Batch of 2 targets.
Target 1
Amino acid sequence: MPATLAMLAALLLGAATVFSFAPFGASALPALTLAGLFALWQPVASPRRAFVLGFAFGLGLFVAGVSWVYVALSTFGDMPEPVAALGTAGFCAYLALFPGLAGWIAARTTAAGSVPRLIVAAAAWTLSEWLRGWLLSGFGWLSVGYAQVDAPLAGYAPVGGVLLPGFFLALTAAWIAGAIAEFDSRRRQMLISAAALAIVWVCGIALMRVDWSTPVGEPTTVSLVQGNIGEEFKFVPSYREKTLAIYGDLVERSRGRLIVLPESALPMFADEVAPEYVEQLHSKAKRNDGDLLLGLFYFEQGTGTDDDRYFNSVVSIGTSPTQVYRKHHLVPFGETIPLKSVFGWLIHSVLSIPLADQTPGPAYQEPFAVAGQRLAVNICYEDAFGNELDGRAADATLLVNFTNDAWYGRSLAAEQHEQIAAMRALETARPMLRATNTGITSIIDHHGVERSRLPWFTRGILEGTIAGREGLTPYVRFGDALVVALALLVIATTLLSARRARRNSLGEFGRDAGIQ
């Protein structure tokens, strides 16, 4: 295939992969699109060309799937449109480096057209997703395992997190690519590997029936509040009183023992909230014999202007002692400025995002003990990092996510984020409560199944009852280590087997030729 046509094919395959994620839900699609990518890698002798094909696939995937960051930069961040477009393109190009790296590894370590090339490609793909999830703060969004939240491979999530379903999906893609090219010449081997993969998929279905956690305590009634405050108004000082009135009214109408308001529900610092308003919230929580959790900011003044500290926080009010959680994993260039001495002036000059230079809270913070439950609090983007959340989940009975996806308008972001939250519930075997500004506010059970949600971009209260859970999944115990070790083991075993086969082949050739 001509190089230009191959690049176009990789680009389109990457873009098509977006339809496997929410809200579309074609969960098996990555097995086909990755098979197409692996087939494009198969005849390539040059690692550089394999990198370019992987990069093209990644560019298609991320431009189609996460270019909603443009909305945050331009529409709500007031960045000039050309600069926002350039920034979005640069972000997507950075993410596309990781699929490119997987292609480079496969071509660098294995022979073109070989079965080992396909197996290494699947393992390298998984390792590249793992690397993308933590390098330079990490961005694991659109890892292919997320497409399996409500599909057969979801049963592996409590064992190895989102990466394990993704790995088996990639191995399935490798088999498809190999079957198309080599079934006639390797019929027996392909049938054996097909049987092995079928067992993997059947075991995934069986694992979905396993309860990795058990109910603890009495079920708790919850009220999840969705204020639907437009992002264009949220931080406008003249709109503040209306925001307080909206949430005050919604809280008064809430019936749950646990009332949850979204991220930055009160767009102000804690010491700016009027005592009588705090007392109103406190009184309501006590009347419901429970607690209220809300998002707002904390400010700590330093000795100089550059020493001031701002925290994106959640605070509890009610019958239990007051507790505060401070967001640990901040969004680069949105909540924190990497290499501030280099990029600080640029970000402040082209972006108008409130509180864009926040301070992270501690990596581990005790779960909130409220309303008879222990809550692992996480704010917005933090639920995209399962390896960080699992430590807090081990000591908690419920997960609670506080989010404001209004930054991304009516894009794919909110549905994708909901799917990510469901994966965290699956991995930890804990229910997930989500309170959001504009949606998606939802209740997700410990199997990752969404039980109820509020309509998107509406104002309301989601009432429900949820039971806390306890018990540790393998993923909570070991994090990503199991999958990373498995992928490395597969690569090492495949390369050793290929080397041994080449030696045996050369030995047989020497004997046939009479060489001693």
Note: The chain has a mean pLDDT of 92.
Target 2
Amino acid sequence: MEGLLILLSPLIAFLVIGLFGSRLGDMASAILCVLGGLFSFLFSLWATAKALQEPFSVKLYDFLPLGNYTLSLGLYFDPLSSITASVVTFVATLIFIYSIGYMSNLFGQWTFKFYAYLSLFLFAMLLIVLSDNLLGIFFGWEGVGLASYLLIGYFHTQKKAANASLEAFTLNRIGDWFFLFGIIASFYLFGTLNIVEIFSKLSGVDKALLGLACLLLFGGAVGKSGQLPLHTWLPNAMAGPTPVSALLHAATMVAAGVYMVARLYPMFESAPQSLKVVAVIGGLTALFAALAATSHTDIKKIIAFSTMSQLGLMFLALGLGDKVAAMFHLTTHAFFKALLFLSAGSIIHAFHHHVHDIYEVGNLKKYMPITYASFLVGALALAGIFPLSGFWSKDMIVATAYEASFGWGLLASVVSLLTAYYIFREGFVMFHGKERHHGEEPHESPGVMLVPMVVLSIMAVVAGFFEGWYSKVFGAEKELHLNIAVLSVAIGLTGIAIAYVVYIKGIINPEKAYEALKPLHTTFKEQFFTERLYHKVLAKGYMSLSRVLFLVGDRFIIDGFLNLLNFLYFKVVKFLWMKLDIMLVDLLINGVARLTYWTGKKVRNIQTGLLNNYVSFLLMGVILILGIILYSMR
């Protein structure tokens, strides 16, 4: 029952807020949302303690009979699902608390809907994490897609937010089609959608078809986790409120893709060619997003590109065969990435949501010391500096990359260098740079926002020390590679040093550097022109083609043909019908008269007035009648 309550807590919060939120009020709805997340977290801890001893299942109900097989929905608790559920609910609860302060200025404007959507988001993510079969995962998969659409476009009166939500929905639908076909292929191969049953049948299936099924499933992960080429929605999703960005990037939607591959990892291991694709897509995305982040100036987009890059590293680890490293980095990443987003939201909140560019603020260290300390902890963890959590988890991935090949290790090291540079570039400009704000002085955020940031800061510091326990739980003892650890820290410090020299000391003028490297800078900022390709060429090209097809196919061909039929009807058919109508009227009216006249004319010849003629007719009649009688008596 407690396992089921993990799901029911946010679901009940969603239903109650959605149905009665207008009566409860915004604050009561926010508290109910927080309680739903908190109870779900407490039940997740109980399930984790039990699952670490022995995995267990919770059957919900039989969903659909298919011949001799019945699709059932249920929950499965093992170390992977239960630990992930605990992390998701813990981070989500802190974000829910933070959102009370962040959204307070909108209270009284139907903000209760925002908290209903947050609860729905958490419920859908937990359905992905805890489902024991692909059908339940798919329901959760679509649920997070719906919730993200509603939350990214929460400020729907703003064109930017409306477009971002539509883009996220569209690109995720593309990935979802791949995912759906992957589920169908899996059912064709195994005759079941239950994950445990699938794992037991892996040895007896065609490896080529299994590889295809894995690639289709991974296509869904590419869309959900914002990997190349379905990536443009992820940075643009920053148009939503900051708590949404934090939840989206740290605990729910984008983490779903990595988790799904890890959940079905025995399938991918049985089709090693599919893992090579996962590694290539992950590695390219990690480098691509890191380069894009070095040139962007939007406060939240820089962190969003960082998420895309870190997820790429996780997929790289999965592709290279290290599920533990990928999932441990996903866990630590949830803490420090949520922390970075909440710190960014604290800055945006201080300026009444009017500031979104790092060059619009400066010297915030003086005015917002707690936000500064929180951002610094998150940045150090992201950069992989010892002893923060990012050092331990990223070191595992870098070590795995070098063990696979020098090329993969070099790529991971370059991404780590760029990561340290761009995140401290953002921090140095905002907290140490020249004061650029005008009017009202910025101030520290309220306590309801700061407390979650402080808690996440603590977790960003200490979570890495659970590396040994985490690896042991999954039966993969990891040793610290001292040379890799030293290299990782050195790379991180180098990236920080470059940012310090450029943005604090001013030894290199960044504007002149950008101007000197303008083609390269523009390429990175434009995401290698992929967004422009999608928006300007593919999207507008599709719309232009639609207009041409509308004008030529619909207006000219279809409407032209209909107009021709209309013309023929009114000018020809109707004319002939009128003629035929006149003829029919003439036949019915005048024809009857003529027939009557002709018949009368012929019949009156019988009336001669002569008696002998009448006697002759009478005799003929009698003879005819007698003949009929005699014939009938025969």
Note: Residues 389 and 464 are 4 Å apart (CA to CA).
